[in-house]
Design brief:
single chain; 368 residues; alpha+beta; 8-stranded mixed sheet; 4-stranded antiparallel sheet; globular; binds 2-oxoglutaric acid; binds fe (ii) ion
């Protein structure tokens, strides 16, 4: 019998790009009375966003054609929108946030006992993007892929079942909603199921890969000089984000980072981010949104990001219907793992590095 070692899953990418331990362990932010130098970010003047700049909200309960055109417009112009009437029970959102808060409220030494390994995906730690920045973020996170039982049973030996049940149910519901939204997004571009066969798991050998990231931003003594989560784009196809409704924190970049537009939480709504893979899969039609999270002096903000990607064997490339003389092929076909490898090296410039060669050279010449 031969054993096939598959090196294409996203966990393999995390093994390829291990993170130094110093870039994993958060300080005990819940007990700091002032901002340490390690967490003090230079401030740069940002303009207030114009009142007309508001992130679209799509009511999924409207007639299908109205939903499709609103989703297309939002993905095209913003790369981000909120959805209401999405069908995920409010009680589940509430319970998942409650369980996330229960985890982050544990004493620092207990959380450090379930810290992520340098080459692993799941567990407690700083944001993976930390190593690309000189200053640390006012942030702690906990990553889940599938069942969190290994870490949860360590944290709560006699009381881990509810955490696990809620997080597993949450992922199942987010998966179904991600698939529904992707269907709407592709259909809105005039594509049929046959154009995007890779999306339908029945034709794939592996299921789609996904990661659930619990994010915690404790109340901060000096929010103006701190950063919750530094500017980045998500590497997923799409991300579904639940943000606690006690504070605004998520912001979308406008005007090349000169202004930041808040995504004000609507209780019960979810935020949908177009990820880099979706930008590649739509040959650039849908925009991937540069975003960040800021922090708050009095409120402990929590968010939960569900990153939905592709099955491990799938090479993402746009359907031929989206490629023509006016829209030449922008990017080389990549698996999620290959893209994450590029992101691990080049971070926010990863898309540039997988550009089709002729376009890459043309861009470079323009910059000279
Ligand atoms: O907390 C937020 O609002 C942003 C989270 C986020 O961008 C992420 O987890 O990638
Ligand atoms: Fe993000």
């Amino acid at each position: 019998m031969s054993i096939i070692v598959n090196k294409s899953s996203i966990s393999e990418s995390f093994k390829t790009n291990p993170i130094p331990t110093t870039q994993i362990l958060p300080l005990d932010l819940h007990n700091l009375l002032s901002l340490p130098d390690s967490h003090t970010w230079p401030t740069s003047p940002v303009q207030p966003p114009p009142p007309s700049a508001t992130i679209p909200v799509v009511d999924l309960g409207r007639p299908p054609h109205a939903v499709a055109s609103a989703v297309r417009k939002a993905s095209d112009e913003w790369g981000v929108f909120q959805v209401t009437n999405h069908g995920i029970p409010t009680t589940l959102l509430r319970e998942a946030e409650f369980e996330a808060r229960r985890l982050f409220a544990l004493p620092a030494e207990e959380k450090l006992a379930v810290v992520r390994s340098p080459d692993g995906i799941d567990g407690y730690g700083l944001a993976r993007i930390s190593r690309f920045f000189a200053k640390q973020m006012w942030y702690e996170g906990f990553t889940i892929m599938g069942s969190p039982v290994r870490h949860a049973s360590h944290l709560w030996p006699n009381d881990y079942a509810n955490f696990c049940n809620v997080m597993e149910e949450y992922q199942a519901q987010m998966k179904a909603l991600s698939e529904k939204l992707l269907g709407i997004m592709f259909k809105s571009l005039g594509l049929a199921q046959d154009d995007i066969k890779w999306l339908h798991s029945k034709t794939n050998h592996h299921p789609p890969q996904a990661v659930l990231q619990l994010n915690s931003y404790p109340a901060c003594p000096d929010p103006a000089h701190a950063m919750g989560l530094a500017p980045h784009t998500d590497s997923s196809l799409i991300t579904l984000l639940h943000q606690s409704s006690n504070a605004t924190g998520l912001q979308i970049s406008g005007d090349g980072g000169n202004l930041w537009i808040p995504v004000n939480p609507i209780p019960g709504a979810l935020t949908v981010n177009v990820g880099d893979l979706m930008h590649i899969a739509t040959n650039g039609r849908f925009k991937t949104a540069l975003h960040r999270a800021v922090v708050n002096r009095t409120r402990h903000r929590v968010s939960m990001a569900y990153f939905y990607g592709t099955p491990q064997e799938v090479k993402i490339s746009p359907p031929m219907k989206l490629v023509d003389v006016d829209h030449p092929l922008l990017y080389q076909p990549v698996t999620w793992k290959e893209y994450l490898d590029a992101k691990g090296k080049y971070f926010n410039r990863a898309l540039e590095f997988i550009k089709c060669e002729a376009l890459f050279i043309a861009d470079r010449c323009r910059q000279l």
